Amino acid sequence: MIERMQITRPDDFHLHLRDGKVLKETVAASARDFGRAIIMPNLHHPVTTAEQAAEYKSQIIEQIPRGSPFQPLMTLYLTDNTTSEIVRKAKAMGDVYALKFYPAGATTHSDFGVTALNNIFSTLETMIDSNLPLLVHGEVTDADIDIFDREKIFIDRHLIPLVERYPELNVVMEHITTQEAADFVASASDNVAATITPQHLLYNRNHMLVGGIKPHFYCLPILKRNIHQDALLKAATSGNPKFFLGTDSAPHAKQDKENSCGCAGCFSAFGAMAFYAEAFDSVDALEQLESFSSHFGADFYGLPRNTDTITLVRNRKDIPAFLPFGDMEVVPLKAGEQLHWSVEST
Fold first, then answer.
1. How far apart are CA 294 and CA 273, in angstroms?
2. Nearest-5° angle of CA 131, CA 186, CA 292?
3. Sign of CA dihedral 117, 122, 125, 127
């Protein structure tokens, strides 16, 4: 049994840091273990221009703990009004590494999202020319579509036609949750990839619903059946470079989660690598963790792999019931439980 393992410092290719007072805690949580992170742009005021991305980046950098190698990699929020000029300027300024597609109304702060893909076809063509990937929240938002089917229908209705129309476009299907998504990515061309979260590897919808609703397991895309959880574990541990780490750590204050209209998102950044180690260990695949966490994402984005390391050790560690979150509190993933792995302090 592996008790200790050293791996190349990982990167997080899907991260929500929020803004304002909470940045102190969110940045520190990710900067402890990760070298870089793709930063999501869906703030209260979405990050839609290169200038806004540069300003948000400066706010994040101010909160990086001394000595941490952490680097924020910025994204822009695609809207129906994102022009080719905006894309070219983002590429020229150098802070922006991708653009994010949110179907309008799909998740937190997505009201400004794209209403129809054909509204941004010229923008996508400029992204190809600029070598900027499209990051996709892959769900339809039709009121008559069951929430557990929204990812599959998005793939059939929108994503398959999109990659056929633009075979040169680099696409990352974010936070995949279904067997269908894993199969689609695995069978697509090499410029189509996917991120997988710790919550979708460790949990299924029974954990959220059986014995009473657990609001801190509520995220979007929502947890699915155990057969989909098993499919994601198989994909993540397969050694296929199309699948790599993206926590989708998305903190919300405790009071915003625990009410009649609770926010969607799980806060996992504080212990993300321990969560992933636990998931990989559950299927005896720890030997695949380094590639998934530290190699495949950097390779897809054309980034150099990190050169320093972190060390994971097998031990039991209690997870607090809550953590500070600006002037509030946030309930972390697996709150009040135990982690079986931890990252050794340096």
1. 11
2. 75
3. negative
- The pLDDT profile of the chain, 346 residues, written as one tens digit per residue, is 899 999 999 999 999 999 999 999 999 999 999 999 999 999 999 999 999 999 999 999 999 999 999 999 999 999 999 999 999 999 999 999 999 999 876 666 666 789 888 899 999 999 999 999 999 999 999 999 999 999 999 999 999 999 999 999 999 999 999 999 999 999 999 999 999 999 999 999 999 999 999 999 999 999 999 999 999 999 999 999 999 999 999 999 999 999 887 899 999 999 999 999 999 999 999 999 999 999 999 999 999 999 999 999 999 999 999 999 999 999 999 999 999 999 997 6
Strands 323-325 and 192-196: unpaired
Of the candidates 24, 29, 25, 2, the one whose C-alpha atom is nearest the C-alpha of residue 247 is 29
Q: Pairing mode, if any, of strands 71-77 and 36-39? A: parallel
Determine contact, residues 281/308, Cβ cutoff 8 Å. Answer: no
| Dist. CA 197–CA 315, nearest whole Å | 22
Q: Print burial letters for 70-80: b (CB count within 10 Å at least 16), e (below 16).
A: bbbbbbbbbbe
| CB contact at 8 A, 113 and 103 | yes
Q: Which residues are catalytic?
A: 248
Q: Which amino acid is at 144?
A: D
Cα separation, 40 vs 17, whole angstroms:
8
| Model pTM score | 0.96
Amino acid at 191: N
Among 10, 63, 21, 19, residue whose Cα is nearest residue 39: 19
CA-nearest of 316, 318, 298, 314 to 306 is: 298
Would you state the structure tokens that stand for residue 138, as one six-digit string? 């892959």
Residue found under tokens 């499919």: 231
pLDDT digits (tens, 9 = 90+) for 234-274: 999 999 999 999 999 999 999 999 988 789 999 999 999 99
Q: Which amino acid is at 46?
A: P
The total of other beta-carbon atoms located within 10 Å of residue 168's CB is: 12
Q: Which two tokens stand for residue 6?
A: 């050293």
Measured CA to CA, the distance from residue 331 to residue 315 in angstroms comes to 22
